Amino acid sequence: MVYAIVRAGGRQEKVSVGDLVTLDRVPAEAGSSIELPALMVVDGDKVTSEKKELDNVKVSAEVLEHLRGKKVVIQKFKNKTGYKKRQGHRQNQTKVKITSIA
């Protein structure tokens, strides 16, 4: 089984061909193709993690859609002072499909 660890949006994701992955918003149009930088590639028993060898590895993904994540509610409260604050946040995200690891 071939899989790769890629850097995507400040995080690391384990991906293989055909996976659907939700990343932080990527500045690309829906239907276009992007490349993700590989940090490690596992091909059966062979593990590749050296920088020189990883420069030749291309992890391609197709942008499927842009969406927004679930709402996160932030609440702050201080006892006996009458202070309370409620705020919400929805993260911009992109759903991609991994097309190749070469």
UniProtKB/TrEMBL annotation:
Alphabetized, the UniProt keywords read: Ribonucleoprotein, Ribosomal protein, RNA-binding, rRNA-binding
**Signal peptide as annotated in the record:** none
Gene Ontology cellular-component annotations: cytoplasm; ribonucleoprotein complex; ribosome
List, in alphabetical order, the GO biological process terms annotated in this UniProt record: translation
Origin: domain of life:
Bacteria
GO molecular function list:
rRNA binding; structural constituent of ribosome
Q: Where is this region: Disordered?
A: 83-102
The record's InterPro entries line, in alphabetical order, gives: bL21-like, bL21-like_sf, Ribosomal_bL21, Ribosomal_bL21_CS
Name the residue ranges with Polar residues bias: 90-102
Would the keyword rRNA-binding turn up in this protein's UniProt record? yes
Q: What binding partners and quaternary form does the record give? A: Part of the 50S ribosomal subunit. Contacts protein L20.
| Biological role stated in the UniProt entry | This protein binds to 23S rRNA in the presence of protein L20.
Question: What's this protein's family per the entry?
Answer: Belongs to the bacterial ribosomal protein bL21 family.
This one is known as: Large ribosomal subunit protein bL21
Q: Which gene encodes it?
A: rplU
